[in-house]
């Protein structure tokens, strides 16, 4: 369950804050505020509320409030436990469980945590448990929380600037940065939120978190997720380039070559950021092409990594002579052909790999390398394996045209591989596809010239 996962994640953050040598009371209070803000944002995610759609948001709030009020629960029979509520009581209320049941799902140390903010250690010793018949003891000082068994108020739409400010204050706590990046990613539900996040400095914060925790794979992966979501926005692509997001992403790939999740999300982040010409140049200079090829070689059996890596190569080499040369030198063509051979049944890998070959073989030297690497044979195999997939056929036809045009050596390879018959068959099957017809005709023309 999401609630159980969140309780474990925040518990780790609490532990990091508690174990941090030299934390001042002010710093601990700052970490409390970060956790409280993150809890509210994740609570919004649990409810499925779209924060930047006021009318829908208000309607859902009212609906949830009515539903939760119908689930009104009796107070806990144990007075002490009711007074010393779990920091995750808001989430406990969401799934309709009783206070006793909700407590049972949390770590033991949190079941008795004083109600301070969101559960960080209090500087005030907790009062001893009251006798069963005695009145409830006074609450420990701190932000009030809703008693167990009572529905918590729904959070307001996100305040990105406040959240970013709070997260920056806790930059040294890796778990908080991980949760913060994940919260930002979850909050990118619409274009308005993406713009607000960019204006609030969320991209700069994400880069700072990556730089502060270079050895922490979880932080790097969640940070890349946040960048993916935020850089769909064109203005945010520019901000990401200026903030050093490209360099931080490449550094993450180099530091965590064996982590498939980091590699996949980093490639995806590069894709989104590269749809900006200046960023394409920066990625080439930062070593993004070489890092992408390394990812492909390290995770040959992982289709998700191969697909995203091919997409990254497309973005970085498209209409960039310099990056096409870098790709050829880095072994990107051989890695792409290897991906096609390893994932013959995966249409997405085949489609994106053909597209990557199209983009990279605008360079004559790369055309020769592709022919030598078996790109023509791999492309024909893709067409035969995915005869009904128009996208694969379309990209494959265009790739074959790029691979064979003005190259007698590659034309001979194409003839031996049965390219003419394969293209003719594709055009017959996809007679209604304008692009298959166009690219198929172009490929046949290139073979005949």
Structural summary, described in words:
The protein has 449 residues and is mostly helical. The chain has a domain at 2-74 and 83-111. Helices cover 70% and strands 0% of the residues. It has helices at residues 2-19, 25-47, 54-70, 79-83, 89-94, 99-104, 108-111, 160-169, 174-187, 191-199, 202-212, 217-230, 234-243, 245-255, 260-274, 277-286, 288-298, 303-317, 321-330, 332-342, 347-360, 364-373, 375-385, 390-404, 408-417, 419-429, 434-448. The model is unreliable at 18-25 and 44-157 (pLDDT under 50).
Per-chain topology:
Elements lengths: L1 H18 L5 H23 L6 H17 L8 H5 L5 H6 L4 H6 L3 H4 L48 H10 L4 H14 L3 H9 L2 H11 L4 H14 L3 H10 L1 H11 L4 H15 L2 H10 L1 H11 L4 H15 L3 H10 L1 H11 L4 H14 L3 H10 L1 H11 L4 H15 L3 H10 L1 H11 L4 H15 L1
Which features characterize this protein?
449 residues
Count of individual beta strands: 0
Residue fraction in strands: under 5%
How many strands, which pairing sense, and closed or not: the largest β-sheet?
none
Query: Strand-and-helix sequence, N→C?
Result: HHHHHHHHHHHHHHHHHHHHHHHHHHH
Could you say which overall geometry the principal axes of the C-alpha atoms support? elongated
- The separation of the N and C termini measures 62 Å
What's the Cα radius of gyration? 27 Å
| Percent helix range | over 70%
Number of helices: 27
Poorly predicted sequence stretches spanning 5 or more consecutive residues: 18-25, 44-157
* Average pLDDT metric: 76
Class of secondary structure makeup? mainly alpha
């Amino acid at each position: 369950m999401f609630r159980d996962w969140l309780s474990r994640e925040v518990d780790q953050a609490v532990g990091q804050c508690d174990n941090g040598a030299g934390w001042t009371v002010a710093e601990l209070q700052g970490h409390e505020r970060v956790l409280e803000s993150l809890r509210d944002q994740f609570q919004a995610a649990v409810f499925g509320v779209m924060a930047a759609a006021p009318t829908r948001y208000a309607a859902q709030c009212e609906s949830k409030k009515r539903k939760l009020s119908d689930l009104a629960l009796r107070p806990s029979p144990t007075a002490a436990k009711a007074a010393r509520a779990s920091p995750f009581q808001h989430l406990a209320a969401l799934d309709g469980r009783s206070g006793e049941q909700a407590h049972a799902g949390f770590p033991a140390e949190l079941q008795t945590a004083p109600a301070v903010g969101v559960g960080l250690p209090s500087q005030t010793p907790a009062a001893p448990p009251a006798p069963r018949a005695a009145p409830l003891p006074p609450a420990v000082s701190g932000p009030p929380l809703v008693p167990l068994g009572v529905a918590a108020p729904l959070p307001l739409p996100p305040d990105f600037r406040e959240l970013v400010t709070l997260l920056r204050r806790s930059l040294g706590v890796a778990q908080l940065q991980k949760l913060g990046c994940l919260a930002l990613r979850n909050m990118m539900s619409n274009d308005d939120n993406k713009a607000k996040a960019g204006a609030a400095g969320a991209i700069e914060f994400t880069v700072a978190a990556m730089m502060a925790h270079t050895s922490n794979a979880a932080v790097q992966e969640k940070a890349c997720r946040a960048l993916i979501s935020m850089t769909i926005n064109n203005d945010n692509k520019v901000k990401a380039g200026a903030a050093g997001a490209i360099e931080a992403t490449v550094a993450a790939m180099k530091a965590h070559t064996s982590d498939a999740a980091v590699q996949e999300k980093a490639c995806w982040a590069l894709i989104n950021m590269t749809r900006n010409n200046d960023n394409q140049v920066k990625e080439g200079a930062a070593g993004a092409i070489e890092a992408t090829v390394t990812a492909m070689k390290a995770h040959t059996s992982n289709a998700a990594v191969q697909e995203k890596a091919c997409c990254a190569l497309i973005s970085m080499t498209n209409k960039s002579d310099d990056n096409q040369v870098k790709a050829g030198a880095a072994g990107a063509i051989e890695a792409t052909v290897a991906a096609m051979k390893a994932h013959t049944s995966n249409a997405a890998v085949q489609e994106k790999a053909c597209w990557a070959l199209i983009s990279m073989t605008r360079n004559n030297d790369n055309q020769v390398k592709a022919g030598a690497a078996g790109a023509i044979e791999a492309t024909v195999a893709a067409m035969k394996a995915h005869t009904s997939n128009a996208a694969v056929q379309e990209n494959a036809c265009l790739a074959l045209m790029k691979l064979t045009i003005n190259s007698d050596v590659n034309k001979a390879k194409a003839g031996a591989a049965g390219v003419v018959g394969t293209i003719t068959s594709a055009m017959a099957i996809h007679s209604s596809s304008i692009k298959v017809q166009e690219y198929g005709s172009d490929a046949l023309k290139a073979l005949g010239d």
